[in-house]
Structure formats: structure tokens, C-alpha cells
């Protein structure tokens, strides 16, 4: 299994999510702070520049003639450049549609859009732009006519200067915000861990309680505090656990009652059935002797057969009841496996119908009565349903630590829908037949006897034809 480099547990996801929210909040705050601070810095620089330029123009413009010449404009820009001070602006002036007149060379950068806007403006117009990667601010200030402040004189004064200092101030805010975001994120680790621990504590309790219930402790409950969603989940779990415990108790009581009922009925029927079997055996002999008329003989034979079937079913029910009650025990003995197989076949007169391959001298410590029951059920089932195209085969072999016996027939095999349930109680291979010689308990009893020995009993279909039952038992060479 490939190991994950990054843990993906709920605790990790909660902590990571908390840190991401903290980092996002810090970065969002830094971005908003930077935007607001940059806007405020640039607005303050712009207003200050417009105010200073207006003050200088207002003090110098009255000395200009009504129609200033280029020389007049050059003197004006020279005085304005000297008054720039720390702002270090460079100025230019234009009268009506005339060219820009400046003292410095080259002339200050004035965007064409700014000149176009200033031609019809009455108040100052500003524009931010970049020149060779340097952020700059250009100001266009229309000069009003003397005596009529609202009427433009046609003279426009331009000033441009670098916004690099303001840009550095804004950048320093970004650096400060970035530097402050990391401590915020690191500091949020502690509350993230505490929050994750508080959230996951009831989840861990719920997981432990669920594991306990899965192990069979249906009386498991969890302590619920609070009124949040996790508390509601805990209360729901307790309600579910109580319901399951009550249902399980009821089912166990009903199951125990059913087992007792089956055992009691089987036990009560055993004595009268024994008497009935003895009587029908005598009557069956009379019918076989020919002393009775054919109809009476046929009726007595039918009654005798059905009585024997009922007696076998009662014996099977009693055997199943002993398994359910845990009263079935092993009576182990060292036996010869080949001899046990021959006795099983001889007792039921199956010697000529089963091919046997058991190694000579194969001995094992088993319960002979229970292994006889297993083999009788498997062989009887194979003889009934295996068909007549091929004989039933019984094979035995010993491995390193297991004794394996297989019973195979040449019939049509077990239907695919029946195969997973072949060892269930009251399961019959041919569901189309309403009656059969079996009780539907034979294979279930065989499987229980195999488990009682610590072994297994499995069923499968052979690749070519027929069903194969495999009995595997623990084995130590003796």
C-alpha cells in the first residue's frame, strides 16, 4: 500500500483549513490596507501638488502681460521650477494653442490626453502615467483672467514630477503587511490545534463506541454535552444503540424460544415415533410377505416410509438443537480412515455404488460417529442428485497438517444460485421438487460436525461435470 506523504485525517484537514482561513484573512487585510493606503498617499500627493502649484501660479500670474510671449512663459516656468523645492517638479506653459514652453531640456512629459482635457477645463486636471518605468503625476492648471476669476485666460501651466517616493511608501506597507501575515498564520496554529481537538473529541468517542458495538457490546453509550450538531449526533447514536440492544435482546429471546420449542417438540415426538417405527416395521414385513392384499400392502409400505422419514427428520432436528445449544461434544478416538469409510458404506449398502480411494494405514484421531454422519450425508446427497452417468467417487489424502476427503459425483452440479447457500438449513438442491428424501438439514449438520472438529466443509462444481464436496480436518500423523 502506497504511503501518503501528507496525512489526510480529519484533524489535519481541520488544522490546514483553519490556517488557510487565517492566511487568507491576513492577505485580504493586507491587500485592502495596501489599496486604501496607496490611494490615500497618491491622493495626498496629488492634492498637495495642485495646491502648491496654484499658490505659485497665483503669485506669479499677475505680473504676466495679457498676451504673454514665449520669453514671458519661459521666465514663468523658470520661477516655478525654482519653487518646486523637494517636489522637484518640472514645469511648462502654453498660451492657447501654442507650443509648450519650458526652461528645462527636454521639456517635462505632458500626456496628450492631459493637454486635450486642459484646453476646455476651468480647474486643475491631473493624470498619472509611467515614463520609462517611473510613476509620474502631471498637473494641468488653467490660469484665469485678471479680474474675472471664472473666465480662462488661455494660459495653462503644466507640472510633472515623479511619484517614486510615494510608490516606495506604498511598497513598504506591502512589505510590512507581508511580514505581519506570517506571524499571524503561525500564531493561529495553536488555536487551530485546540479547535481541532475540541471538535474531534466527540468524533473519537463516537468511533470508539461504534467499534465497541461492532465487537458485540450493544450496551455501549457515549457521554453527550452541549447542543451543537456533534451533540445531536451523539444523542442519535445513543438512541440507535438502545434500539439495537432492545431488538437484539428480543431476537435472542425469540431465537432461544424457537430452539427450545424445536428441541422440546423433537424430544416429545421421539418416543411415539420410535413406537410407530417399530409397528410399521412389523407391518412392513407383513406387507412384504404377501399375506396382505395389494392395496393394503401398498398403503402400509407408504406409511412405513413416511414414518422413517419423519423419524430421521426428528433426529436431525435434535442434532441441530444440540449444536445451537452448544451441547455437541466430540468423542475422539484413533481410527483407521479406510475402515471407517467401509463401515459407512456397508451400513447403508452403498459398497457397489461408490468408488473409494483411501490410502492403506491412514489413521487419524476423530469422532467416528460424527465423521460417519458427515460421510453419509455427503454420499447420500451425491447418490440422490449425482445422476447415473458416472459413479460417486470418495477420495482421501493426508497433507502436512490436514486430512482431506472429497466426494464427487457425475451429475449436473449445483445451480449457481444455490451454491452459496448449500450449507444453509432447509436448503435443497432441486427446488422444483416439492418432496424429497432429505430433510434439508443433512448438509447443515455435516458442516457443523466439520466445524466441531476444527475443520471446514466446502462445495464447488467440477470443471467438467458434477459437484465436489471437500472435507478438510486437522490432522497429526499417528
Automatic annotation (TrEMBL):
It comes from the Bacteria. GO terms for molecular function: ATP binding; phosphorelay sensor kinase activity. Residues 197-249 form the HAMP domain. Residues 264-477 form the Histidine kinase domain. This is histidine kinase. Residues 1-30 form the signal peptide. It is found in: Cell membrane. Pfam families: HAMP (PF00672), HATPase_c (PF02518), HisKA (PF00512). PROSITE patterns: HAMP, HIS_KIN. GO terms for cellular component: plasma membrane. It is a multi-pass membrane protein. It catalyses: ATP + protein L-histidine = ADP + protein N-phospho-L-histidine. Its EC number is 2.7.13.3. Keywords: ATP-binding, Cell membrane, Kinase, Membrane, Nucleotide-binding, Phosphoprotein, Signal, Transferase, Transmembrane, Transmembrane helix, Two-component regulatory system. Gene3D superfamilies: 1.10.287.130, 6.10.340.10, Histidine kinase-like ATPase, C-terminal domain (3.30.565.10).
Amino acid at each position: 500500500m502506497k504511503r501518503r506523504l501528507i496525512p489526510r485525517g480529519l484533524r489535519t484537514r481541520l488544522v490546514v483549513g483553519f490556517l488557510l482561513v487565517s492566511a487568507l484573512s491576513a492577505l485580504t487585510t493586507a491587500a485592502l490596507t495596501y489599496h486604501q493606503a496607496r490611494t490615500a498617499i497618491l491622493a495626498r500627493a496629488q492634492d498637495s501638488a495642485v495646491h502648491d502649484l496654484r499658490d505659485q501660479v497665483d503669485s506669479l500670474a499677475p505680473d504676466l502681460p495679457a498676451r504673454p510671449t514665449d520669453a514671458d512663459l519661459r521666465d514663468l516656468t523658470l520661477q516655478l521650477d525654482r519653487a518646486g523645492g523637494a517636489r522637484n517638479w518640472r514645469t511648462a506653459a502654453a498660451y492657447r494653442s501654442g507650443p509648450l514652453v519650458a526652461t528645462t531640456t527636454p521639456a517635462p512629459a505632458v500626456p496628450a490626453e492631459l493637454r486635450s482635457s486642459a484646453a476646455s477645463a476651468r480647474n486643475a486636471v491631473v493624470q498619472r502615467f509611467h515614463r520609462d518605468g517611473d510613476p509620474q503625476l502631471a498637473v494641468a492648471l488653467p490660469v484665469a483672467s485678471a479680474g474675472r476669476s471664472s473666465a480662462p485666460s488661455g494660459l495653462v501651466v503644466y507640472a510633472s514630477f515623479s511619484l517614486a517616493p510615494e510608490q516606495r511608501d506604498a511598497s513598504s506597507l506591502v512589505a510590512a503587511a507581508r511580514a505581519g501575515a506570517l506571524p499571524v498564520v503561525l500564531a493561529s496554529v495553536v488555536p487551530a490545534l485546540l479547535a481541532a481537538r475540541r471538535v474531534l473529541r466527540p468524533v473519537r468517542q463516537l468511533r470508539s463506541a461504534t467499534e465497541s458495538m461492532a465487537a458485540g457490546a450493544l450496551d455501549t453509550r457515549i457521554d453527550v454535552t452541549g447542543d451543537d450538531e456533534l451533540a445531536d449526533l451523539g444523542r442519535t447514536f445513543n438512541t440507535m444503540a438502545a434500539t439495537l440492544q432492545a431488538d437484539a435482546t428480543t431476537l435472542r429471546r425469540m431465537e432461544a424460544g424457537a430452539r427450545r420449542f424445536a428441541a422440546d417438540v423433537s424430544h416429545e415426538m421421539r418416543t411415539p415415533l420410535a413406537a410407530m417405527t417399530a409397528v410399521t416395521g412389523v407391518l412392513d414385513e407383513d406387507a412384504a410377505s404377501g399375506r396382505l392384499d395389494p392395496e393394503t400392502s401398498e398403503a402400509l409400505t407408504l406409511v412405513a416410509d413416511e414414518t422413517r422419514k419423519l423419524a430421521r427428520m426428528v433426529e436431525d432436528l435434535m442434532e441441530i438443537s444440540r449444536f445451537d445449544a452448544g451441547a455437541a461434544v466430540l468423542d475422539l478416538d484413533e481410527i483407521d480412515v479406510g475402515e471407517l469409510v467401509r463401515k459407512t458404506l456397508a451400513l447403508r449398502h452403498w459398497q457397489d455404488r461408490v468408488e473409494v480411494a483411501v490410502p492403506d494405514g491412514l489413521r487419524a484421531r476423530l469422532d467416528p460417529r460424527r465423521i460417519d454422519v458427515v460421510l453419509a450425508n455427503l454420499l447420500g446427497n451425491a447418490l440422490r442428485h449425482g445422476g447415473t452417468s458416472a459413479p460417486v467417487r470418495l477420495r482421501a489424502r493426508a497433507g502436512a497438517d490436514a486430512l482431506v476427503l472429497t466426494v464427487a459425483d457425475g451429475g449436473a452440479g449445483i445451480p449457481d444460485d444455490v451454491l452459496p447457500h448449500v450449507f444453509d438449513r432447509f436448503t435443497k438442491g432441486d427446488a422444483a421438487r416439492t418432496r424429497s428424501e432429505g430433510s434439508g438439514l443433512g448438509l447443515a449438520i455435516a458442516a457443523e460436525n466439520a466445524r466441531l472438529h476444527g475443520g471446514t466443509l466446502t462445495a464447488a462444481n467440477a470443471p467438467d461435470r458434477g459437484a465436489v464436496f471437500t472435507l478438510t480436518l486437522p490432522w497429526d500423523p499417528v
